[in-house]
Amino acid sequence: MMDLGPYSDFIWPAYAISALALLVTIAQSLAAWRAARKKIAALSK
Question: How many CA atoms, within 13 angstroms, populate the side-chain half-sphere of residue 30?
Answer without folding.
Answer: 6
